[in-house]
Amino acid sequence: MSENSKLHRAQREARQEKQAKKVIKWIFGVLILLAVFFMIYSFYIVQ
Q1: Alpha carbons 3 and 35: distance in angstroms, whole number
Q2: Which DSSP symbol is given to 27?
Q3: Where are the domains of the chain?
Q4: Average pLDDT, whole number, for the chain?
């Protein structure tokens, strides 16, 4: 494999890893937001 293709592969892997971390942060953020809304909803129903 040529050095140029190795370089492109490494760059692509780094870009994909960065994007994956971003997606994971969004997923956890949405889950936390849903948990907060559910807590508010639960307190509202109990009263």
Answers
A1: 48
A2: H
A3: 1-46
A4: 94
